[in-house]
Amino acid sequence: MNRELLRIKERLDLEMAERNHADEISYDKPDPILVAHRYRNEWSALICALFGYGRADSIVRFLDTLDMRLLEQNEAQIRTSLSQHYYRFQSSEDVIQFFISLRRLKENHSLQSLFKNGYNSQNNVITGVNSILHELYNINQYESRGYRFLIGSAVEKPKGSSTMKRWMMFLRWMVRSDEIDMGLWSDVSSSDLIIPLDTHTFNVSKKLGLLKRKTYDLEASCELTETLKLFDPDDPVKYDFALYRMGQERMV
Questions:
Q1: What does pTM read for this prediction?
Q2: Residue 22: which residues within 8 A CB-CB, separation 6 or more?
Q3: How many other β-carbons are positioned within 10 Å of the β-carbon of residue 3?
Q4: DSSP 199-250
Q5: pLDDT below 50 — which residues of the chain?
Q6: Residue 136 is inside which H or E element, if any?
Q7: By the 8 A CB rule, do 176 and 221 touch?
Q8: What's the confidence (pLDDT) of residue 250?
Q9: Residue 209 CB neighbours (<10 A)
């Protein structure tokens, strides 16, 4: 590792250590994982992650209005309870159908088992996410632009594809375990995770020299993850939260 990379690693290690505490996630410093921590289960965490776009305070404010216990209720109750709920690109019908899809899925599967159906073949988290997406679209034929934006689409190749940021963030929460991430899943290696690249992380990583790719896509996420493996091959995504906050707070 050259001197410049070593200097960046030392900075990120310090930043990560300083931010790895419960006070880093609060209503003063909002993040969707704040609500996910309240429930500490994979289904609520996925809801929090997939609605995790836009301003952090707006995300948390919306998530606070959702009753995650609706996943235990029947579809008529879901429809009644969520009839006035909408968020940015998602209409109330999109929100209702999302909860219905998860409820149907939850009757026969766990998210971890669905993920591992795809992941285990190649230790590839992209195929794992694709496996969940396949079941979500199979179990509910509802279609709208807002619904598809919320859930996302399966990815065949990283180049030119969506970063899958919210799905990769969900996996970080599920697999890693520290003061921020919940570590609710077992038998998925943190070394296989891909950094959940958003615009803050993308921009700060380019400024630090960690990322050369100019296109904001999944290939850029993979490139940045490979660079971070030089710092920690077993847990490269541990730097994600620090990079995100550094970008959000305009520290670079």
A1: 0.96
A2: 179
A3: 7
A4: HHHHHHHHHHTS----S-SHHHHHHHHHHHTTT-TT-GGGGHHHHHHHHHTT
A5: none
A6: helix 125-139
A7: no
A8: 84
A9: 11
